[in-house]
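ingest -> validate -> predict -> emit
validate: passed (alphabet ok, no gaps, 471 aa)
predict: started
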Amino acid sequence: MTTQLNPETQTAPAETQTAPPVTPYEPQHDVDTSAVPFRVSDGVHIPAQRHYDQEFAELEYSKMWLHTWQWAIREEYVPSAGDYMEYTIVDKTVIVVRQKDNSIKVLENVCPHRGTRFANTAECGTFGGNQIVCRFHGWRFDLDGSQSYIYGRRGFVPESVDPAELGLKEVRSAVKYGFVWINFDDNAPSLDDFLGTMDDHVAPIGMDRMRVRWWRYTEVPANWKVSMEAFMEAYHVMQSHPELNLGATGDAYSVDGLTFYHHGMGHVDSTPPWDHTQGFNLPDSFVDGMSFGRFFIEQNRVLFEGLDATNTARDEYIADRIRDLPDDELLPRFFEELYTYAQDAKIPMPPLDLNASNYGYIFPNMVFLGFPGNILFYRVRPNGHDPNTAFFEAVALQVPREVDMNNAPPPLEGPMAKDDWPFVLRQDMENIELQQQGYRSGAIDHATISPRYEPMIFSLHSELDRYLATY
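emit:
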């Protein structure tokens, strides 16, 4: 359990609550999407073709990926002037470059001479001498993309190599939460406008204080949306992750306690007060016969063993110190001990904040879940133009000690074999592969989605349709 709670307000016994009737999901926009192929139209079903149709994938690229904000890299991977890291989305490739004044620019990763890429996929390093040099013919550019040298300039028509016209194209970018975000559309809303009130729930998490513990990636045999959807609901936990259930099966593991709700653009949930038309009350127990405090401690132990991300050795050290306390003392004592430990170790933890989201979705392809001081987030991107494969990434962040803030980040690990992933993610990947096969089989025309338990999936598809109808 990764909830960020105020233990003193932990109430609402499940047996005293009456769940309201479930109604179809309603889009959080008023754009007419009737011309969108395979559109989400009834708030209950999602057409299967959206997950494998080639023409639909091409529309996503031209009408969504080229017009939306997406995070490219973590800022700590380009700490000094000349440092760079590459990012790719379908056909587009860019380099994120730290400038001499410590700002960041994002440049098209293409030499204007004959199209050679400067950096390979996911490559990071340093441009020596603060010069971006084409490996093909030695053309050079300053870190801001301006032309600095053309070998054999006398052999070109002067106007064709005018320095004022022939530099590297800059891509719109912004830095927020420790991420570098990009948008290929200069006319799109700003990143702050894109996030809207969601910032009220993401900023308190303190991701800008965090640093990468590990960053792993692989190729999955599934559409990028299938791969994202696996992490956008917890309805699957009872069956797919039995270790997390602590022995409970079926209704003995509370499905209503696993509901995640929209907020703002439909891209994030928040802690109480809850904001959702379906209503929500946290049950007093997730597992029959087990107090919430005991469940909190024991499930976090399994998460540490099965992910080593949302819960780390640091958190388990705290839990082991209090595991034998009475159940009703576990939750408040854990947070007390955690923050005392952080203060003593000079770990700049973000303060507990009821507005902070412990689980959220940022359109189009970022899901995060976490714990005070830790976040695990997932990113999935199309594998070129193939709608049936995708690049899956998992990144674990943690607030380090102050003395470790400027340590070099770890290298990317991958492509990882499925069996080399922590067991919780391995279980998810097995489902993803089988789900894609099922969609392509023709046995079903659509998925049937719960507006109560799987609303973030509707959020993804509804927002996607808005882009396809707008651009």
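The first strand starts at residue 45 and ends at 47.
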